[in-house]
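Minutes, project check-in

Agenda point 3 was the complex the collaborators sent over. CS summarized: two entities, 495 residues total, and the question is how they sit relative to each other. Sequences were read into the notes so everyone works from the same version.
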Amino acid sequence: MNRWTVTLVRTLAVYAAASIQLTILPEPGPQLLLAVAVWILCESSPRGGILWAMAIGLLLDAAGHGRLGLHVATCGVLAATAHATILTSDRPAFWHGPVIAGWLAWGDSMISQILQRSLAQDAMELVAVTLHAVAIAGLTAAVVLAGVIFRELTRRCFMLREYPSVVRLENQWSRLTEA
Amino acid sequence: MSAIRKLSTSPFALGTWSLLLGTALWFAPPALVARVRSTFLDGLRPGMCLVEHAHAATGERLAEWQSAELRELRAQLDAAVDAAAKAETRLRRVMAQRVVQAESIPSEASGGGAQGSPALFLPALVEARVIGETLGRDWRSGVILERGLKDGVREAALVLKSQRPLIDLGEPDQLSMEDPLLIGSTVIGKVDVVGQWTSTFLPVTDPDYRGAAQLVRESEAGPVWGAKGILRGAGAACVLEGIPVDASVRAGDAVYNAGRDGSLDVPLYYGEVAAAQLGPDDREWMITVRPAAVPSTVTHVRVLRSALNPQRLWAH
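CS then shared the predicted structure for the full assembly.
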C-alpha cells in the first residue's frame, strides 16, 4: 500500500470510529477513537503517529463538551511519551498496543476529568476519578487486545506473512541514511 | 539542518508542539470554537446517521429472532397494561366528578344558580410534542440553532442552559410558567421556562416541583375531600407535606390538585398515597405519593393554559 492509500484507510477508520463512538457507545465506555489512535501510532513513524493522535484529540474535543484543545494536548503529549519510552524498536511487540491504549485512555481521562472539575476537591474524589479512568483504560486496552488477537488469528488461519509497511520501511531507510 | 529537522520531529518536540497547540485552542475565541465544533459535527453527521440506521436494523433483526410465542405474550401484556391504565384513568375521573358534584349540590340548593356574566378566563388545552433527548441536545448545543441562525432562529438562554425536558411550544403559543402538563386528566409536570420556540418543564417527580394538592378518600357516602398540602417531587416518587396529624390519611387515598380556580370542571389527578407515617415532630404526616403511571415514552402532552373569554371581550 502506498502512502496515500494508507492515509485514506486511516481516515476512514477514524471517521468510522468517531461515528460509532458518538452514536452507540455508552459513556463511560471504551474510547474507540483512542484505540484507533493506538493502532496508527504502532504502525507509523513517531511524527506521523503523534500528528494522528493530535488530530484524533481535536476530534474528541470537537465532539465532546470539554474545552477545545484539552484532548489535543493530552493525546499529543501522551503519544509522544509512548513513542519515546515504549515504541523504540522498529517492530512493535503484541503487548505494545494494549499497554499504550491503557496509558493513552487512562491519562486522557484523568487529565480531562481533573481539569473539567477544576482539580479534584478531596482524596475521595481523586480516587473516584482514578477508578473511572482505570475502567475506561481497561476497556480501551481490551478493545486493542481483541484487535491484535483477531489480526494474529487471521494471519495464521490464512497463512499470511506480515510485510512491513512502506511507511515503516521508509522510516527505517531514512534512519539508516541519517546515521 | 539535519540536526534541527531531527530535533523538530523528535517525540519530545512533537509533544511540546501539541501542548502549545492545545493551549492556543484552549484560549480560542468562542466563535471559533463554535465554528470548529459545528464543522466537525456536520462532517460526522452522515457517518452517525449510517451507524444509527445500521444499529436500528440490527436491533430489528435480533427482535425478529425472538420466538413468536414470546412476542405474542409480550403484546398481550402490553395491551393488558394499557387497558388497566385506561380503566384507572376513567375511575379517577369519575371519582373527581363525584366529589365535585357532592360539593356543588349544597351551594346550588342554597340559591347559587344565579345567572352571572360569563367567565373571564377559559381553560384551553393545547397539544405539545415532547422533544426527545437527542434532538433536545442538538437544539441546546446549537447544532440546529446555528444552522438556522441566518433565518433568525433564536432561543432564550435560560431554555438552552437548562437540562430539563423540552416541549415544542413557546411564547407565541401563550404558554406561561406554572401551566400544568397533562396526559388525560393526570398532571405530569408544569411549564418551567418559556422560550421563543420551546419551553422546559418540571416533571412532578423533580425535586424543584411544588404544587398545591388535596387528598380524596373513599367513604361510605362516596369520595370526600381530605386535607390540603403541598406536593413536592422527590426523585422517583413525590412527597405530600403540610398534612396535620389530626387529618385522616390512608395508603391508597387519591391526591388531586388543590389550586382549582373554577375554570375546570374536575380536579386534576396527581397520584395515590403509597405510604403515610408520622413525622419526627408528630405534627405532620410524612406522606409518600406514587405518581400516576405514565407511558415510558411520552411523545405528546397537553398544556392547560388560560385564555381570555371572547364573550367577555365583546361585551365591553
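Noted in discussion: Residues 120 and 126 of chain A are 6 Å apart (CA to CA).
Follow-up: revisit at the next meeting once the mutant set is ready.
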